[in-house]
Amino acid sequence: MQKRTLYIGNLAYTTVEEDLEQAFESFGEIEDIKLMRDRETDRSRGFAFITFEKESEAEAARAMDGQEVAGRPLRVNEAVQKQPAKRPQKKSTNNFNQ
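Structure (tokenized):
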């Protein structure tokens, strides 16, 4: 991911995008907020990604790490690209060598 994108964790399940915007807008221009939601309930999964216009704004926003929003201390880190899961190699079911 770009250094302009932050991972925001330990969010209350009642958090909405507007809460995050209010908490982080003082650090700079927010380009995008992606609040991760449960597919079945549409409730927050407790984490989000915020992308700022500038890398310096994202760096400044890291000051929110440990600050309380909705009664919970946030975890704010640089977002990292998720690596695709490696599939375990299947064991050969070849029975020719018996």
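The mean pLDDT is 89. The chain has one domain: 5-78.
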